[in-house]
Known about the structure:
The chain is of the alpha/beta class. It contains 21 helices and 21 strands.
Amino acid sequence: MTFTSARLLAGVIALAHGVHAFFPDCNLGPLKDNIICNPHANFRDRAKAVVNEFTLEELINNTVNDSPGVPRLGLPPYNWWSEALHGVASRHGVNFSAVGDFSSATSFPQPILMGAAFDDDLIHQVATIVSTEGRAFNNIDRAGLDFWTPNINPFKDPRWGRGQETPGEDPYHLSRYVYQLITGLQGGLGPDPYFKVVVDCKHFAGYNLENWNGNDRKGFNAIITTQDLSEYYTPSFPPCVRDAKVGSVMCSYNSVNGVPSCANEYFLKDLVRDFYGLGNDHWITSDCDAVNNVFTPHNYTTSNANASALSLKAGTDIDCGTTYSTSLGDAIDQNLVTKADLKQALYRQYASLVRLGYFDPPEMVSYRKYTWSDVNTKNAQNTAYMAAVEGIVLLKNDGTLPLKKGIKNVFLVGEWGNATFQMRGNYQGVAPYLITTLDAFQSSGFNVTFVNGTLNSNDTSGFAPSVAAAQTADLVVFAGGLDETVEKEGLDRMNITWPGMGGGQVDSSSLKNDSRVNALLWGGYPGQSGGQALVDIITGKQAPAGRLPITQYPAVYADQVPMTDMNLRPNTTSGNPGRTYKWYTGTPVFEFGHGLHYTNFSVSWASGGPKKSYNIQQLVAAAKGKTHADLGVLDTFKANVHNTGKTTSDYVALLFSNTTAGPSPAPLKQLTSYEHVKRREGRTDENRVARGHARDRRAR
Length: 700
């Protein structure tokens, strides 16, 4: 059975419209008498009513992300794929105007920097702003209602090109981050009657490699032990699905233990739908062309028809690509799938659109009122700035920072000194403005000499004048770091050395150990106000309080363990020294959680502090009153945080636990809780506390 003409028509429609976000006509259109247009009916019944009108051809054609709709029913085309990792992004379903209204959206820092703030409230604020702007774009047909974010794979290897998209390496930290992000983006916890937008937790599961040493993500088979899968690679997903009630999940390119993720029924049905609770009201999408990859290069099947059938029946409802639309007809002919299988996938999709208010009168959906005036508001600008400030980490300081009065002449050198688009990182949108470090120094009243310089060239012709300029300056600032020329989706690094591009997970030993380097700041990808945030910290207008959400390893680490080794625990036979702060047995350059301040804090336990040890059986028993044992509060720890200096500063308290129970070797320690304490003034009261709630899966 073939549907060539129908597919060709779908392609023409998609090309003509580009972005498909306009709404069906439920007043005068062909569906006006269908229950889909009854806003008071159950969303499941409404979805089934419209999908049951589809012919077999129409069902097949609408299983892909760039859905052509059903013109005869008045269903317009719809692109399920929009992006909003750290702001509405210039990807696929999003269309920025060239000038004027909707020509930009607030550009927040990348998650790797926002993760360094360890501030749950901040993440919720950012997410709320991003979804408001996404809805505003949708309301004038410039975006869809489904945003394929966040990336919640833990950042386990410093060479990974997409580590910048994640909040860091710790799964507990990711769990709390993702809960705040999802509830902020979607408009609450399983909001009723309408979702603000629907977002997508990705990539399930074990995805941590792009293209390293000839190993490509689309054909990579990740060998992961059950222990590591349970303990590290998947714990960020239950809080997303089960707790935050996310509307969708994305399966990853890679295989795990020989089975491609998008064709893995155990992953998608048993874990995501049944155990985590995604259920049948929400949908799963493949990563783009991952259904085709089940056939090649995974070579898991003998044809695309079989790959499509396996993926659909495993639970992949949407194919980001065209494999479903071009091969499911053959799968039907070969009795590999049924019309009922196709309908089930479409039921889930349209149930989601119903809950977004897609078919309802605009006056019933409060989010339909958002306009250009709701984009990049003053509050959004302030939040983007504070997100950068809170995330920047002071790695080293001999007292040079904050700057003393009298410093006026600054020599600024480095490729990031006047960086603009680099500050946005991957999955970026069009920023309304980008304040560079050079801009910020100049607007702050400094006399600045700037030399771009380079770290990737043997050209020394500019050295002499640069050295001369530096010698006459009161302050020399070098601004360098990673950008998308060395790390991004599809591009991993082969080493983590410095010099060379650096600033994220790199070996900063030469800078740390050089007494001529007075201070060192880590700033990730800081977004539209990144330069201002950095200069305000340098000058003391703001005080640093961020903590590294990653481990900075020595350069030799890249030679000790291949990216393809998914094992977390150290292994003397293979030479793997262990991964992340939990299992790394070497000496890090800067450890996970490192971060200095401009003041001194004393931290002490209140009321005697926690017990030295806990009985795991008693802890589990105490959590039985909760719906899920891992949400049980095992203990509440109170600490007095006292700023003993004169500089007002935030403080991030991290609570760790360790154990000797379970598989050996046990983690050296693991994050159990954290609290971001705001604006602690110098020499003031000690009564405000940081509270931490340990969960039974964390405290043993």
